[in-house]
Hints:
The protein is α/β, with parallel strands linked by helices and 360 residues long. The chain is 37% helix and 18% strand.
Amino acid sequence: xxxxxxxxxxxxxxxxxxxxxxxxxxxxxxxxxxxxxxxxxxxxxxxxxxxxxxxxxxxxxxxxxxxxxxxxxxxxxxxxxxxxxxxxxxxxxxxxxxxxxxxxxxxxxxxxxxxxxxxxxxxxxxxxxxxxxxxxxxxxxxxxxxxxxxxxxxxxxxxxxxxxxxxxxxxxxxxxxxxxxxxxxxxxxxxxxxxxxxxxxxxxxxxxxxxxxxxxxxxxxxxxxxxxxxxxxxxxxxxxxxxxxxxxxxxxxxxxxxxxxxxxxxxxxxxxxxxxxxxxxxxxxxxxxxxxxxxxxxxxxxxxxxxxxxxxxxxxxxxxxxxxxxxxxxxxxxxxxxxxxxxxxxxxxxxxxxxxxxxx
Length: 360
């Protein structure tokens, strides 16, 4: 028997899905993880999500669903973390393609459920922005989660919605989620992070990094994203809550609006109307800006001096931790330099490495 886990927002949700599968069901690697190929611009410089036509080496599972094996490759200039996830983890990663709107995602889900006949289906979101109404001022990336939620609510199969690390994505404060979060089905521990330890060494997801950090007992205030959002690392961080799927849909205005969409353009239009923006527009603008930024050399003395200034300012604001992605952007370095910067900092100041975060 096979389990199906749908990573609601792609990116780090897929890593968290692998961690959840091992924690709840054991480490036999029998789960199929359905996820977007939608990475940060530092991995994929092309704005928006990737479809099957953006890869070579995919393997067909059903007419609408393709798996992403370790030897698959994104077609340049696109990038993707999925082939490396497939290489390092025992799970089967399948591509969730949003380009045909909610109707297309629903079709993918129905075909996959019919093909696999899974013993369980979990829809997983890290942080809880899948529960957004759409008008929250801190909301930054509602589109993917809303689209996945809309599709899951149309599938004729029992799907359990799980929210891990409520508030950890920096989009919805935990206080805004208390009224809809259901019972805790699991609280991650340090042992639960072991299956994804190697992945957390390179994967750029900040929310899943903080999820793992709180599972390992790290507490404090973490500064994330290009905007420097403060995210509390509390005892609530490692919790996984069950949420009623229908209640989530009734709360999420964008999810209700996109139910009948047949293209990603339609989904974007609804997002602009309801939320005031589309996160893909944000990526388009940022990608255009990044093209004009000259590359900077990683000179150790210069980097460490600038890091000290950044750390001093952050500590004055009550920040105790940050991510390597945020440091990269705060120092105005190119996203492709993130891994080199990470190695430089860990080698220079190993005592500040609170894996997978950086302690100030």
